[in-house]
Amino acid sequence: MEQVDLFLRFGSALVMGFFIGLQREYAKQDDEHLFAGIRTFTLITLAGCAGALAADQLDTGLAFAAIVLVLGGMIAIAYLITARQGEVGMTTEAAAVVALLIGGLCYWNELPLAAALTVATTIMLSLKPEMRGLIQRLTREDIFAVLKFAAITAIVLPVLPNETFGPLDVFNPYQTWLMVILISGISFSGYVLIKLLGSRRGLRVTGLLGGLVSSTAVTLSMTQRSQEQPAQGRSLAVAILISWAMMFVTVLVQTAILNRTLLEVLWPAVAVGGVVTLVTAGMLSWRAGSRDVAGEVALSNPFELRPAITFGLLFAVVLFFTRAAQQWLGDTGVYLSSILAGVSGVDAVTLSMAQLARPGGSLEPTVAARAVLLAVGSNTLVKGAFALISGSPALRRAIWPGVLAILGTIAVVAAVLG
Question: pLDDT (tens digit, 9 = 90+) per residue, 286-319?
């Protein structure tokens, strides 16, 4: 190994140890019992890197194991001392073990992984107050919903048949439940962020995070609130439009995970729709002023079994009717079924198109992409109609240009797609 490469790896270990130690040094201001700070963590990562070098030079893993045992013993002693002082937490000690391994990864030239672990460790160390706040905001029902969903997934998923059968040979139990896991996981990320930040954030943040869970729920909630607070109609319209923009983001994420070929065809059109929606929200926000009132949306846990199973059934139904419509009416049938299915949501249509447009599948990527856009359009039309019919006069005046702009954009990009 050349000297430059060797110094780069040790330098990386030094920087990563310093990064973790900086956070612990800052935390020492509130907890003086922490045994390690900037210097200690830097030395730990350097020791891990040096141990890996010694193992390489001596051609035995015992050298690295010896370093781990020595430093592990020192960390254990530090924990016993702090525990006797009444501090039984061992977060810093666990972070020191991770830092030691990060040092080894740096020598083994696994720098991207080492950097990712460094950032993840630092974030976890920094989020102590927020994590405690999250635990306080989670309900007993939230915990049980996650546990039941995990149990069903871990126990049932492995035994589900991973093959298609039934009418038109489209139903695959294994793939269907995987789609449920995907959608629930994406939605749960937004749900956790809302719980983490608190339920009464600004309307813009509520629209942003709520859109990850359900843009429909945001639309219904904000529309109802506009009747109770007519003066906030323009700000509520901004939150609704932002949640619709997040719908475009989730479509891209789902497609990127399931079908890269479809993504290459779909992303420019979806990106245009999302940008138009955000620009419309931005212009409306500018007219509404900088004041952002508190916003709150009642959202259910995406890992609850009943809605998850319902979505799985909906996905299977959409997949079946799309295949049937294609056989009877060709591409026109695909478009019609997507428009009808989009009334209830975009996720099932997006996943169905991603499945059917896989290499060797029954749909061309261009047809599938246009079907997704039509589903987005029908879903936007339904949500927009609800806001225009049930919203306050101020909300209706604020949101109708956005609805027309989004629908017009979708119509244009769907027409020129491919």
Answer: 876 655 555 566 667 777 777 788 888 888 888 8
Q: Residue 32's closest CA among 24, 20, 41, 43?
A: 24
Percent helix, strand, coil in the chain (nearest 5)? 80, 0, 15
* Residue partners of 300: CB distance under 8 A and separation at least 6: 307
Pairing type for strands 201-202 and 294-295 reads antiparallel
- Give the Cα separation of 246 and 212 in Å (integer): 6
- How far, in Å, CA of 23 to CA of 160, rounded? 45
Q: In 3D, which of 264, 217, 243 has the Cα closest to residue 364?
A: 264
Strand positions, DSSP E, 161-204: 201-202
Picking from 310, 130, 299, the residue whose alpha carbon sits closest to that of residue 215 is 299
Q: How far, in Å, CA of 301 to CA of 140, rounded?
A: 11
224 vs 195, higher pLDDT: 224
Of 206, 229, 228, the closest CA to residue 219 belongs to 206
pLDDT in tens, 341-390: 988 889 999 999 998 888 877 789 999 999 999 999 999 999 999 999 99
Taking the alpha carbons of 43, 45, 47, 50 in that order, is the dihedral positive or negative?
A: negative
State how far the Cα of 21 lies from the Cα of 116, in Å rounded to an integer: 16
Return the axis-axis angle of helices 62-84 and 38-58, rounded to nearest 10°: 160
Residue 294 sits at φ, ψ, to 5 deg, of: -65, 145
Cα–Cα distance for residue pair 322/333, rounded to 1 Å = 7
Kindly compute the dihedral angle of the four CA atoms of residues 200, 206, 211, 213, in this order, to the nearest 10 degrees. Answer: -20
Which residue has 């993840």 as its token pair? 120
Q: Which two tokens stand for residue 344?
A: 């209830």
